[in-house]
Amino acid sequence: MKDISSQYNSYTFNEYLHDEDDKKRYGFTVLENLFVNQVFLSKDKSVLKIIDKDGFPYYFECTGDCCNHVWIEHISGIDNLINSYVEKVDNPNWFFLSARKEIDYDNSTDQEIVELEMNDNSNIDSGFFTLKTNLGNVIIELRNSYNYYQYGGGIIYSGVSSNRDLLKLHFDKISEDF
User: Fold this and answer.
1) Where are the domains of the chain?
2) For the segment 111-156, what is each residue's pLDDT rounded down to a tens digit?
3) What is the largest CA-CA distance in the chain?
């Protein structure tokens, strides 16, 4: 994968991880030393479901603050994840991919300014998680779009099928890169 870190402003996902509980909950760290049997993605690309060798589902939900939207954009190396042991997970640096529209504060009404600040979701960040398995690397790319204000976003471990809303989602089995 091409290194794009010099082309974009970046910030580190680890900046938001304050203690060991955060490290277990955010990202995919809980998968370390786990045998992965199957991988599924929700239709809206917001939840990843991973089934271990014993058939237990692990849910990972995209999450964001107030005015943003987070989703799984790409998974590369899926053949390295299915029927493999996850040895290590590297949390990503996030890269600022696109800029918001400039607001003309001198020639806009207060209402126009508020409207632009709250509804312009043209800011997009991209973060790449690397899962190192016994078969090779897997790259999971998250995207985070948000309005004028920068809000945090990421992916969290939601447990082993404890959330009833997650159980209602429709998932597609992932067997190739997308």
Assistant:
1) 10-160
2) 877 776 666 656 778 888 999 999 999 999 998 887 656 666 788 8
3) 62
